[in-house]
Amino acid sequence: MSKQITMEKFEGFEYIEGGVCAPQGFKANGLYCGIKDPHAAADGNESPISQVKNDLCLVTSDTMCTAAAVFTQNKVKGAPVTVSQKNLAATGGKAQAFILNSKNANTCNADGEQKAYRMCELVAQRMNIKAEEVLVAQTGVIGQIFPIEPVERKIDELFAGLAYDKNLEAATAIMTTDTVKKEVAVEFELEGKKCRVGAMGKGSGMIHPNMATTLNVVTTDCAISSQMLKKALSENVKTTYNCLSVDGDQSTNDTCAVMANGLAGNAEITAEGEAFEKFRQALYIVMMNITKMLAKDGEGATKLLECRVSGAKDLDTAITIAKSVICSPLFKCAMFGADANWGRVLCAIGYADAEFDIDKVDVKLASKAGEVHVCENGAGVEFSEETAKKVLLEDEIQIIVSVGDGQGKATAYGCDLTYDYVKINGDYRS
Questions:
Q1: Rounded alpha-carbon distances, angstroms, from residue 117 to 81, 136, 145, 155, 415
Q2: Which pLDDT value is given to residue 295?
Q3: Domains plus CATH for the chain?
Q4: Could you confirm whether 139 is annotated as catalytic?
Q5: For residue 150, what are the contacts with CB-CB under 8 A and spacing of at least 6?
Q6: Which of 66, 91, 107, 213 is catalytic?
Q7: Who wins on pLDDT, 72 or 87?
Q8: Rounded to an integer, what distance in angstroms lies between the CA atom of residue 137 and that of residue 254?
């Protein structure tokens, strides 16, 4: 299975290279500092595997940014989530840097906030800005004391290595059980000015709405007010990350932050209108593609699943139905086995907390190998099992559901459930 997703084309938007470094004025860097084995790293005895796996990264802007973020809704929140929330509140939605690490989530620790804030201080001292103008995110094992010493030892090297083309080093540093890096960027025009939005993300397991991803950094050189940035982010989170589920477990550290430095030179977006809609669409394209990357790289996954619901009475109803299908363990297992057991789709639709007429439900299963119609008006129809098997053996599957003649439509993203998921999570701490 290829972990690369099929990227949908959108008129007026062009995919470009560079991830978080694609927009003007953003630098990044990533390196290995030894968070998981700080004593070995301090002695210079890190293993060959550790040497090639970055665990600390930094993204900075040449100028101050408007910023907005969304975080986990888990009642147990990681220390970096609390610190970043406080920092954004203190600055009124401003940030100029974002420091992140893997290997340790810094969650459920008595000194967690102190150490997360210390990371902000280390960056701020080298940039001559306030610690509150730095965001922080961490991912990894929960409940283990976070060693701040490796970060303190390596912060000068991390800062000195910042460059406008180090997006790969940064994207690699936030990977945990991820098997591939996740980054995307798009370019578009506003009032004759070229604007860009770039992003990197990580997540493979412990992914479930709401805020359904672990760490995400989005950068843009578009000029936009903090209020409108928050609006664009919240609207897009609802139809992207919050429509993603790998395993039904919601992380304690989920973070998605957007920083906008305005260096593209467009007139600042301060209200709804054509410019806002163009920016919102660009942000959607980036976030949607990262969402699909996260789903396809789910722990042990062999297939990306997309449940596309239409005909619902409203958006919320469509989202609820689509997520119900994607979250069904039985359905996910059927997709692993390429079994067109459409009854599991109907079962999952039936227990969705939404109002619709089950007698109007149609279901099709599709992929690049073709399409099979398996259910019409809430009842099964004859189909070729051989054709269905070919369709479901592909690594990107669409479950196309119609529930009536309403205007509501939405897509939820997930993956199949395999033997390897259990293997990975049986010894995650090791």
A1: 11, 8, 15, 14, 36
A2: 87
A3: 14-296 (3.60.70.12), 304-426 (3.10.20.340)
A4: no
A5: 33, 34, 35, 38, 41, 42, 56
A6: 213
A7: 87
A8: 8
Strands (E), 301-369: 304-312, 362-367
Q: Which of 330, 335, 345, 323 is nearest to 415 (CA)?
A: 335
* Residue 399 backbone phi and psi in degrees, to 5: -105, 110
- Radius of gyration of the CA atoms of the chain, in A: 22
String of DSSP letters for 388-422 = HHHHHTSSEEEEEEE-SS-SEEEEEEEE---HHHH
Structure confidence at residue 272 as a pLDDT band (50, 70, 90): very high
pTM summary value: 0.90
DSSP, collapsed to helix, strand or coil, labels residue 385 as helix
Classify the phi-psi angles of 99: left when phi > 0, otherwise alpha if psi is within -120 to 50, otherwise beta: beta
Distance CA 98, CA 133 (A): 9
pLDDT at position 426 is: 73
Distance CA 320, CA 403 (A): 12
Q: Is 213 within 8 Å of 254 (Cβ atoms)?
A: yes
Higher-pLDDT residue of 49 and 384 is 384
Q: What is the pLDDT of residues 141-191, one digit of tens each?
A: 888 999 999 999 999 999 999 999 999 999 999 998 788 899 999 999 999
Longest dimension (CA), the chain: 69
Read off the amino acid at residue 184: V
Q: Please state the rounded mean pLDDT for residues 57-62.
A: 98
pLDDT for the residue numbered 354: 94
pLDDT (average), residues 196-205: 85
Looking at 109-118, 143-152, 249-258, 420-429, which range is the least confident one?
Answer: 420-429
Average pLDDT of the chain to the nearest whole number: 91
- What gap in Å lies between CA 315 and CA 303, rounded to an integer? 26
Does residue 210 have a cis bond before it (omega within 30 degrees)?
Answer: yes
CB-based contact 381:287 (threshold 8 Å):
no
- In the numeric block, the tokens 């619902």 are attached to 312
Distances from the Cα of 243 to the Cαs of 173, 208, 210, 315, in angstroms?
25, 8, 8, 12
Residue 187 is encoded by which pair of tokens? 């370019």
